[in-house]
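Re: the 313-residue chain
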Amino acid sequence: MTRRETVPNFDGEQQLVGSVQVTHHFDEAQGSVAPVRWHYVTAGDPGGESLLLLHGNPESWRSWEPQIEYFANSYRVIAVDLKGYGQSDKRPGDWRWESCAEELRALLDQIGVGTVAIVSHDRGTVLADYFGGNHPDRVRCYVRMQQVCHIWRAEYSWQANYFADPLFGPYLFGDPDVYFDFRLKAMLKNDVDPVRLETLRYEMSYPGIADAVTRYYQSSTFEKERLDRVRLFPHMAFPVLLLQGNQDDGQPTYYFDHPKLPAAACFPAAELAWVDGAGHYTNLEKPEAVTEAIAKFLVANDAVQPQGAERQP
């Protein structure tokens, strides 16, 4: 099994992401069973509007580096390692998605963040759905990436079975080389900067990820938690952008643009946009197009106007 030696960051440590300086934070906030220790980075104006970035599986805060660099000009950017990933808490506890969303809310409360604009991807979107559906007063607007809504077919999401498997799940998540070769690289529809891939491979090497991430999938099934989230969509009266790669084999386009069952109709105020030519890992495969779509949506639905308009993605 490949195990890279990871060097954790420390609270207050600063790091350059492109031309922008981010600050690492470690905060312990109330959890449903025990306090949860979160790792997250911030960039931009500490007093500005908050933009919350929630990554997917098997990523970390670093999957958002292009967006952090761009949006730090006009927002207080907060990019979180989801519980179980990167340098956030991996101890046993309550790993149901709705409970984890409440734990994330407790973190935001503790660090003084009220309302947020949310950008999420993949399983980060599951967390965001619960947060936004249960606390719509806390969300200004929401960019919702690569997560099913009301249409789902099990044959396209067969990975749920081996993610939850008590033997294969920890093996898969415990060896970054196995996950990258068996799962992530097989899903890419475009070349990705090798440096970015190696960064994410490194982020998967923190001890404890194998057991922690598997707990999510053992807490429920894809279908049960999808049905549970569907009930919350009508609560989301804030603007929602469904931003999808149109080459994602696990989430075919008809999931979202079916003429009789359009996904946008699940929400009070949603629109659908495609990242053309992108597979599931949209923000890795097409970072410029993703940033451009997010920026356009935020400008249309938020009072904050990006500074330095000449530096469009």
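Confidence is low (pLDDT under 50) at residues 305-313.
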